[in-house]
């Protein structure tokens, strides 16, 4: 079926859409039919500039032939094979290639790779690895995880337990966790460029929670080095260093959730590299395969891996895995993606654009409804005042307006979040910002 033809638009009844107000959407749908480079085309033939790299995942831009070819080749050669007690070469090859660009460089030794099918699975996998590791080294009382208010770590039961967004938490039961405060502080940090200056003291929350629960009960602490889904919350200067020091002091593993910061978003291969702070586990997905085939990966340190390998011979060291762990077709997409990243220097390209991006975004300061602008690498946030005290309304209107005019942005609460493909050109940065400026005027 050619869905780019408007006459072929299907009925919308059956697909129960994720994270969507289904009734509202189906009354006024937005349907994307094709994509190339920086642009989508919707079912009506309108061009839409992609300001969000899909959902923070299409880092190399859309419609990459190299990925398509690799996927097709792999599908014809080996479509699927199990990775439980057997394997296939391409998953090992992909893991080896990932090991060479692992977060923190060679010295960090974060090069043991566990494959998953998504960011949520990567998070749950990392939490399980942390708890299993503590047990394996004789620290079996450590089962609690510390997360953060406003943290987003996907939608698995582990992820919602350590996450801190109320709508993800209120309906479902959770595993033992506790939460540090978030670091968003518009009062003191409004319109900071890059990392905020104020709020380092919030890292001491970790020490407070350690004292509250007892270090011998805590397996790990998980943070997004830069949180995205809550509306782009940046760590204050020195914050991650302090979290690392406290976790180390108490034998608590540190997990960086790099599902959105991994693969070049901040102008370095990983946020781990950007901040120069080395965790014990790093979760990834999204940019791992340029979003083309679902896949996630957890990078584990050799210390963690070896700790788990030291059990009795013939035992399964980590009783965990997915049917699609190391899926051959996803691995093929991933290898092709890494080749593109290397050839086009995409893992560091954002560094050269960050200044232009920052100045363009901050030009929106002064608009009556803009209360904050935040940026890091090729990530941006424009926080708006809610209309008539109703959270999210104005931002949602901007989102709808921008889409009609041909720009895809992402809205979370009162925040417009931006994360364009890393292939973006300077003129497109200007276009994104001027289109948002115009939309802000229209919805005022
Ligand atoms: N962790 C973080 C930091 C994320 O931003 C996301 C998704 N936006 C996830 C985990 C979950 O990933 P997925 O939707 O692939 O399960």
From TrEMBL:
Necessary cofactors: pyridoxal 5'-phosphate
Single GO MF annotation: transaminase activity
Superkingdom of the source species: Bacteria
InterPro entries given in the database record: Aminotrans_3 (IPR005814), Aminotrans_3_PPA_site (IPR049704), PyrdxlP-dep_Trfase (IPR015424), PyrdxlP-dep_Trfase_major (IPR015421), PyrdxlP-dep_Trfase_small (IPR015422)
Keyword vocabulary terms for this entry: Aminotransferase, Pyridoxal phosphate, Transferase
PANTHER family per UniProt: ADENOSYLMETHIONINE-8-AMINO-7-OXONONANOATE AMINOTRANSFERASE, BETA-ALANINE--PYRUVATE AMINOTRANSFERASE
Protein family according to the UniProt entry: Belongs to the class-III pyridoxal-phosphate-dependent aminotransferase family.
Protein name in the entry: Aspartate aminotransferase family protein
Organism the protein comes from: Rhizobium lemnae
Phylogenetic lineage: Bacteria, Pseudomonadati, Pseudomonadota, Alphaproteobacteria, Hyphomicrobiales
